[in-house]
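User: Some background: our group keeps a shared notebook of sequences we're curious about, and every so often someone picks one and asks for a predicted structure to add to the entry. Today it's my turn. The entry only has the sequence so far, pasted here. Could you supply the structure so I can complete it?
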Amino acid sequence: MGFLLEIVTPKGIYFSNEVDSLTIKLTSGYRTFLAGHIPLIGSLSYAPMHFSKEGKIEEFALHGGAINVTKEKVSVVCNAIESKKEIDQERALAAKERAEKRLKEKDPNIDIKRAQLALQRALVRLELASKN
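Assistant: Of course. Here's the predicted structure to add to the notebook entry:
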């Protein structure tokens, strides 16, 4: 017996289906959710996440957001999400290098927060892409 997992991005519903478990990183650390979990609301980190359904694991790069857990449903509202299959490792590496260069330059015209977020996204993508 599973629970409904719904993942929503600014573009709309990314995923809506029953799953057996969800492992995701909140700002307080990793949590695994199963059917009937106690209610919870939390903030999500930039980190890999995965869910399982019938023994099959699906992995994603999650780029921040919020989670709302009820006994019947887990809702993830995120800024962006990518499946492991969607990640281009070379592109992520280039994005990481660009962000690091911008942060090292200390140019007053550079949006530091934007560069830091770009670096976080690239690091999450690379971490997930490097998993077997």
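Suggested note for the entry: Helices lie at 89-105, 112-130. The chain has a mean pLDDT of 91.
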